[in-house]
Design goal:
Blueprint: H1 10-21, E1 24-33, E2 50-57, E3 60-64, E4 67-71, E5 75-79, E6 85-89, E7 96-104, E8 114-117, H2 122-137, H3 142-160, H4 168-179, H5 186-193, H6 197-208, H7 212-230, H8 235-241, H9 247-258, H10 262-270
Antiparallel strand pairs: 1-7, 2-5, 2-7, 3-4, 3-6, 5-8
Length: 294
């Protein structure tokens, strides 16, 4: 990524003013996965429309303006108005995408496609809020403001430089935080980070002082504690919801971390005379019955 220039290009200033001041209309806003019929694997374009895509999960090769882009989770892609493009998805990778198309009065005049890596989930939040407000208000109100913020943030990071770019461990941590309730394997995380299983495990332990298995189980146990207190779901239902493959394994891990069983924790914290319990999680290695999975 280029460093910040001494003189901001005039084209950058012009585009910022256009985004801020000209009428903007959202023409399309959807949140979908690889099974959706919205995807088109043929070369196509959207005249007079800027398309913004956020990859929450997945991998793809994108041909846009005769340039091939390799994209993966937490990537933001911006297509200029009318740019011909083609998304080629990886069949083995689950895809979760938020796609927004906007039309700016008079056009923005992007010269090239933009590809950025999300930082601290800023784009994730902006895309989600745009989608939420668009569905709630049918394209009016705050949705347009959030869409402007996406474009302004993209312009700033693309023209002035993207600081604090995530390394492979940052991407892995963000993925775990977003998907800890799903089945996760060390091999899957290593593929996301483009490193070997052993290297990822060593780096994770060195930086965070704990193993990937411990960290994932900690998140799941904390989520289970909240559900035990706030819902009437059964132990089996909670076990499945927070990502454990079997209730028996869940109960064993929970007891190792909290010093009591899930049932005992619920009884202690939902009785009329209960006192707040702050059960610190213990650091215990728990081997999943399914080798390599957490």
């Amino acid at each position: 990524m280029c460093s910040r220039p001494d003189i901001v290009p005039r084209s950058f200033q012009d585009k910022v003013e256009i985004i801020r001041n000209r009428p903007l209309e959202i023409t399309f806003c959807e949140w979908f996965d690889e099974k959706s019929d919205i995807w088109s694997d043929k070369m196509h374009n959207h005249p007079q429309v800027i398309e913004m895509i956020y990859f929450r999960t997945g991998k793809a090769q994108i041909n846009v303006s005769s340039e091939w882009l390799s994209v993966s989770l937490y990537d933001v892609i911006i297509y200029p108005e009318g740019a011909y493009h083609q998304e080629v998805l990886f069949p083995s990778a689950a895809q979760e995408i938020i796609c927004i198309r906007v039309k700016i009065n008079g056009g923005l005049g992007l010269d090239n496609p933009i590809q950025l890596k999300d930082q601290n989930q800023v784009f994730n939040w902006l895309f989600q809020k745009t989608h939420e407000e668009y569905k709630r208000m049918h394209g009016f109100g705050m949705a347009e403001d959030y869409a402007r913020m996406i474009l302004l943030t993209c312009m700033q990071q693309n023209y002035l430089g993207q600081s604090g770019e995530k390394d492979h461990l940052d991407v892995v941590m963000q993925y775990i935080d977003d998907h800890f309730y799903e089945e996760i394997s060390i091999n899957q995380l290593a593929e996301i980070a483009h490193v070997s299983d052993a290297y990822l495990s060593r780096c994770f332990k060195r930086r965070h002082g704990t193993s990937i298995i411990k960290y994932v189980n900690m998140l799941r146990v904390e989520a289970a504690k909240h559900m035990l207190i706030s819902t009437g779901d059964s132990i089996n239902e909670i076990s499945s919801t927070v990502g454990f493959q079997s209730p028996k394994y869940f109960s064993r891990v929970f007891k190792n971390y909290v010093d009591m069983s899930p049932t005992e924790f619920r009884e202690l914290n939902t009785s009329d005379n209960r006192s707040p319990v702050n059960n610190c999680l213990k650091i215990n290695d728990e081997a999943d019955p399914q080798s390599g999975r957490v």
